[in-house]
Design brief:
Length: 750
C-alpha cells in the first residue's frame, strides 16, 4: 500500500518554479495581451521581438532526438528585428503585390505573395474529431515518494520534479464552440519524464459511456450534431444522443454524471480528473498492483448553475480558457493532487465485487481511499496556442517503466486509435518531433523519413541487428530502465464477441450516484434531464428514457415525466444502495485563489469611492482578483481604474459582488444603446440587474456606506468596507450561498 506522509516531502522544485514569476509592486489585473504596453503611434524604430509575458513559457529547446541544445526557449520563436521570407530574406514591403504598374495585373514572379498566401491557405489543420475545443498550460509535477512501494516509475519518487503540459477540453463541440456547454471534459497530462513520455489521457468524469471501444464511433456519432443539418452544436440535448443512450443502457452511469453539475464545471481549476481505466503498476521487486488514477483540485470541485452556463456561452464563450490563463498570469497557480486507489492484482481483476475492467463502473472512495502520490502545479501559459495547445498529441500507449495496461476492452481500442488520429491530424508519423511533443529523454528509434522529418539522422544502418553502425542502438536490460510488459498469464479461451457477465449491471451504480448527491444536486439532475429530453422531437425516445430512469430511481423518473407532461413509468422494486459522500460537491470549504470579485463604484458621488482602495488591497492579499465596475472606463480618481463598465459587466464573470455605492443611471443608460438599461429605478438599471443575477446565482454580496441592497442569505452590509469584504471572502470559501437556492426568497434590488 502507499505509505509516507506527503506533508513531510520537501517539494523544493515546486518552490523554485513559483519563484520564477516576476513580482510586481502591486498585483496586476490579468488580461494584458502583450508583455509591454503599446504606444499610440505605430513603432518605427527596429528592435528585437518582445519577450514572452512573465506567465508564458515555451517547450524546452531539445533536438528532434531529445538532446538538450542549451539554447534559450525563445530560440523556437521569431528572431531578428526585420521582416523576412520563410528562408530569412529581408523584405521591404508586405502590403502590396508586385504588379505591372500601380494599376496593372499582379505578376506571377511575386514569390513573396505566393509564399505568404500558400502558407495562409494551409495554416489550419484538421481539428480533433473529439476534444477539439481545448486549452492547455505548462507546469511541473513533483512526486511525494509515497508510491515507490507500488510503482518504480522515476517521476513518482520523492522530490523528483517533472515538466508537464496539460490540455483541458470539451468532447463534443468543434473548435469554435463555447466552453460552458454541458459536456464531459478532457483532462490530458503529458509528463516529460527522464524515462520517456507518459501520457495520462483522462476526463473529469470517472466512467465512460461504453464498455468496449468498438462502440466509440457509435456514441460519438450519436452525440455529435445531426449529420443532415449539422445542428445542434456542442450539445447532447437532441434526439440522436438520447436515442442511443436510452437503448444502450451501459451508458446510464456516465449519463447521470453528465446531467449532474459535473457536466458544467465552474472552471478547469475546480474540476476533478480521472484516468477512467484501471492500470497495472509494478514496483522494483516486480510486484504488481491495480490502480485507478485521480486528480483532486486544491480549490475543491465547483460547478456552474445551468442558467449561468447558458448566459456565459453568449457573454463569454471563452470563459474556461480565460479563467485558466488569467489565474496563471495572476500567480494563482492551479494545483491538483495526484492520487491512486490501490487494489490487489488478482486473477479476476475485481475488487469488492466490482469489475475493474468495466469502464462504466467506479470503486467508491469509502471502499478504497484515494492516496496522494504527488502534486501538479500549472505555472506557465503557452507562448503560442497553435504550436502547443493545438499540436500537442496524446496517446494512451505512451507509458513508462512501472506503468502497464490491463485487459480493459475500451482501453485496448484506445491504444489503436490515438496513433491513427495523429497521423491524419498532424500530417504524418513524425508528430513526436513537434516541440510540444518531443520527449525530454534521448531518442534512438531507427524510424526514418516520412512527412515533416526534422531530425538529420546519421549512420547507415537503421535496423537490428547491425554491425555497420557499431551495433548501435542496443537493447536495454531491466537495470537500464527498459520498458518490460508485465508477464500476465493469458488464459486459454474461445474467440467470441461478447462481454463478461459482470458487465451486465447497468443501473446499481447510477442509482448509488443519484442517492449520493445532496437534495439540491438531485434537483439539478432532474432539471437537466427534463431540459435535455424536452429538446428532443421524438416522443418515443422520451418515453424510452423514462423507462431507463425508472430503473435508477422512482422519484427521478416521476419528476422528469411530470416536467415532460408524460405519465410516469410503473414503479419498480429497486435495490438498496450505500451512498458515497465523496460523490457530492457540497459541504466543505475551499481556497479562493484566483476568484473574481466585482466592485461597483460611483466616481461622481462624494463617497462613491470610499474604502475601495483598502478593499482592493485586502482582496489582492487574499489571492482574489478585484475588478472595479463604473459608469465609464479609465481613471476614476484616488488612483483607481475601472476594468469593467455597467455596459460590459455581467454577473456570471464574478464569484462575488461588492458595492461601494448604488449609482444613479449613467448617461448611456438608454434602452436604444443598451438593452439591459430598462426600468425606472433611481439606480442604474444595469447595476440592478447585476445585483439581481448575482443573488439568483447564489453568490455572496457585500455593501457599505450609502450602498443599499436589502437583506437575505449571503448579503453582508456594514460601515467598515474591509470588514464587509472579509465576511464576503469567508462566504466564498463554500463556493456559493447554498441555502439561498432553497430559501425561496425574492431577489433584492440595489
Amino acid at each position: 500500500m502507499v505509505s509516507k506522509n506527503p506533508a513531510e516531502v520537501v517539494v523544493s522544485a515546486l518552490k523554485k518554479a513559483v519563484e520564477k514569476v516576476t513580482e510586481a509592486a502591486e498585483p496586476a489585473i490579468p488580461g494584458a495581451p502583450g508583455s509591454e504596453p503599446p504606444s499610440v503611434a505605430e513603432p518605427t524604430e527596429p528592435r528585437e521581438p518582445l519577450p514572452p509575458k512573465p506567465d508564458q513559457d515555451a517547450p524546452e529547446t531539445v533536438t528532434p532526438t531529445g538532446a538538450p541544445t542549451g539554447a534559450p526557449k525563445t530560440a523556437n520563436s521569431q528572431q531578428g528585428a526585420f521582416l523576412t521570407t520563410a528562408q530569412g530574406v529581408r523584405l521591404y514591403d508586405t502590403d502590396h503585390s508586385l504588379k505591372a504598374g500601380e494599376r496593372g495585373p499582379t505578376l506571377l514572379q511575386d514569390h513573396h505573395l505566393r509564399e505568404k498566401i500558400m502558407h495562409f491557405d494551409h495554416e489550419r489543420i484538421p481539428e480533433r474529431v473529439v476534444h477539439a475545443r481545448g486549452a492547455g498550460a505548462h507546469g511541473v509535477f513533483v512526486g511525494y515518494g509515497t508510491a515507490e512501494n507500488i510503482c518504480k516509475a522515476g517521476f513518482l519518487k520523492e522530490g523528483v520534479s517533472t515538466p508537464v503540459f496539460v490540455r483541458f477540453s470539451t468532447v463534443v463541440g468543434s473548435r469554435g464552440s463555447a466552453d460552458t456547454v454541458r459536456d464531459t471534459r478532457g483532462f490530458a497530462t503529458k509528463f516529460y519524464t527522464d524515462e520517456g513520455t507518459f501520457d495520462l489521457v483522462g476526463n473529469n468524469i470517472p466512467v465512460f459511456f461504453i464498455q468496449d471501444g468498438i462502440k466509440f464511433p457509435d456514441i460519438i456519432h450519436a452525440v455529435k450534431p445531426h449529420p443532415d443539418r449539422e445542428i445542434p452544436q456542442a450539445q447532447s440535448a437532441h434526439d440522436t444522443f438520447w436515442d442511443f443512450v436510452s437503448q444502450h443502457t451501459e451508458a446510464t452511469h456516465h449519463m447521470m454524471w453528465h446531467v449532474s453539475d459535473r457536466g458544467v464545471p465552474r472552471s478547469y481549476r475546480t474540476m476533478e480528473g480521472f484516468g477512467v481505466h484501471t492500470f497495472r503498476l509494478v514496483n522494483e521487486a516486480g510486484e504488481t498492483s491495480l490502480v485507478k488514477f485521480h486528480w483532486k483540485p486544491k480549490l475543491g470541485v465547483h460547478s456552474l448553475l445551468w442558467e449561468e452556463a447558458q448566459m456565459i456561452s453568449g457573454f463569454d464563450p471563452d470563459f474556461h480558457r480565460r479563467d485558466l490563463y488569467d489565474a496563471i498570469e495572476s500567480g494563482a497557480f492551479p494545483q491538483w493532487e495526484f492520487g491512486v486507489q490501490v487494489f490487489p492484482d488478482t486473477p479476476d481483476q475485481t475488487f469488492e465485487g466490482i469489475d475493474l475492467l468495466d469502464s462504466t463502473k467506479i470503486v467508491p472512495e469509502e471502499l478504497a481511499p484515494v492516496q496522494p502520490i504527488g502534486m501538479l502545479t500549472l505555472n506557465r501559459n503557452p507562448t503560442n496556442f497553435f504550436a502547443e495547445s493545438e499540436q500537442v498529441a496524446f496517446h494512451t500507449g505512451h507509458l513508462v517503466p512501472g506503468i502497464d495496461v490491463t485487459d480493459d476492452p475500451l482501453l485496448h481500442a484506445r491504444l489503436f486509435s490515438y496513433l491513427d488520429t495523429q497521423l491524419t491530424r498532424l500530417g504524418g508519423p513524425n508528430f513526436g518531433q513537434i516541440p510540444i511533443n518531443r520527449p525530454h529523454a534521448p531518442v534512438n528509434d531507427m524510424l526514418r523519413d516520412g512527412f515533416h522529418q526534422h531530425a538529420v539522422h546519421g549512420g547507415v544502418a537503421p535496423y537490428k541487428p547491425n554491425s555497420l553502425d557499431g551495433g548501435c542502438p542496443f537493447f536495454a536490460g531491466s537495470k537500464d530502465l527498459a520498458y518490460v510488459e508485465v508477464p500476465q498469464r493469458v488464459a486459454e479461451a474461445t474467440k467470441v464477441r461478447k462481454a463478461p457477465e459482470s458487465f451486465a449491471d447497468h443501473f446499481t451504480q447510477p442509482r448509488q450516484f443519484f442517492h449520493s448527491l445532496s437534495p439540491l444536486e438531485q434537483e439539478h439532475v432532474i432539471r437537466a434531464i427534463t431540459f435535455e429530453l424536452g429538446k428532443c422531437y421524438e416522443q418515443a425516445i422520451k418515453e424510452r428514457q423514462l423507462l431507463v430512469l425508472a430503473k435508477v430511481d422512482t422519484r427521478l423518473a416521476a419528476e422528469v415525466a411530470t416536467g415532460l407532461g408524460l405519465p410516469a413509468p410503473e414503479a419498480e422494486a429497486l435495490p438498496e444502495v450505500v451512498p458515497s459522500p465523496a460523490l457530492s460537491q457540497l459541504g466543505q470549504e475551499w481556497p479562493i485563489d484566483g476568484r473574481m470579485v466585482g466592485i461597483v463604484v460611483d466616481a461622481d458621488a462624494p463617497d462613491g469611492l470610499d474604502g475601495v482602495a483598502a478593499v482592493r488591497e485586502a482582496l489582492f492579499a487574499a489571492g482574489v482578483v478585484p475588478l472595479v465596475i463604473a459608469a465609464h472606463g479609465g481613471e476614476l480618481g484616488q488612483g483607481l481604474v475601472a476594468q469593467r463598465t455597467f455596459a460590459t459587466a455581467r454577473s456570471v464573470e464574478f464569484d462575488a459582488l461588492l458595492l461601494a455605492a448604488t449609482p444613479p443611471p449613467a448617461p448611456d443608460a438608454l434602452p436604444a444603446r443598451d438593452e439591459k438599461a430598462t426600468g425606472g429605478s433611481p439606480v442604474d438599471p444595469r447595476v440592478d440587474l447585476l445585483v439581481e443575477e448575482t443573488y439568483r446565482h447564489a453568490k455572496a454580496i457585500g455593501a457599505w456606506g450609502t450602498a443599499a441592497v436589502g437583506s437575505g442569505p449571503g448579503i453582508v452590509t456594514g460601515d467598515n468596507p474591509t470588514e464587509v469584504a472579509e465576511q464576503v471572502l469567508t462566504l466564498m470559501r463554500q463556493h456559493r450561498v447554498w441555502n439561498r437556492l432553497t430559501a425561496g426568497q425574492e431577489p433584492p434590488q440595489a
